[in-house]
TrEMBL record:
<feature type="transmembrane region" description="Helical">
    <location>
        <begin position="53"/>
        <end position="70"/>
    </location>
</feature>
<feature type="domain" description="Low molecular weight protein antigen 6 PH">
    <location>
        <begin position="71"/>
        <end position="141"/>
    </location>
</feature>
<protein>
    <submittedName>
        <fullName>PH domain-containing protein</fullName>
    </submittedName>
</protein>
<keyword id="KW-1133">Transmembrane helix</keyword>
<keyword id="KW-0472">Membrane</keyword>
<feature type="transmembrane region" description="Helical">
    <location>
        <begin position="16"/>
        <end position="33"/>
    </location>
</feature>
<dbReference type="Pfam" id="PF10756">
    <property type="entry name" value="bPH_6"/>
</dbReference>
<keyword id="KW-0812">Transmembrane</keyword>
<dbReference type="InterPro" id="IPR019692">
    <property type="entry name" value="CFP-6_PH"/>
</dbReference>
Length: 157
């Protein structure tokens, strides 16, 4: 394993679903906006151009909400690991990581830290199957390489 090896991981299936849903939502709200015209019923109100733009704006904001789920990412190299989840980002050196876990039935992998905390990595989702397993294996290789360098340094080789 070389010192320059790095790993970049992003979920695949959720990105496809979210982008498709976001596009569909904008299209549906745009079509609804074009159908808003004329009186609102028996009352005195009427739909105007501003109401149409507001509907399109609601579709865009909803689409941005869907795209928030495409944010998770994990990047790792010989120095450490950087995890970006839906909310929050973490940059950890390998020294604080005890192991990389992907428990049976868990929705995503997690980092087990030396202070007994678990840091979820939403970028490695069970729905991605082999892609997630390969990502966990790559992270474990990087962690083991770091542990081996620590052991070499301790023995003075």
């Amino acid at each position: 394993m070389s010192e320059t090896e790095s790993v970049r991981l992003r979920p695949r299936r959720i990105r496809v679903v979210c982008w498709g849903s976001a596009i569909a939502l904008v299209v549906v709200f745009s079509l609804l906006a074009t159908s808003l015209s004329g009186p609102t019923g028996d009352g005195y109100g009427t739909f105007q151009r501003g109401d149409q733009f507001a509907m399109i704006g609601l579709g865009v904001f909803g689409a941005l909400g869907f795209l928030l789920f495409t944010r998770p990412r994990v990047e790792a190299d010989a120095r450490g690991v950087r995890v970006r989840n839906l909310v929050g980002s973490y940059e950890l050196p390998w020294e604080v990581v005890r192991g990389v876990r992907f428990d049976r039935g868990a929705p995503w992998a997690s980092l087990e830290l030396h202070d007994d905390d678990l840091l979820p990595m939403m970028a490695l989702q069970a729905a991605d199957k082999e892609l997630a397993v390969d990502g966990v294996r790559a992270l474990r290789r990087l962690h083991q390489a770091h542990q081996a360098r620590l052991a070499e340094g301790a023995t003075g080789r």
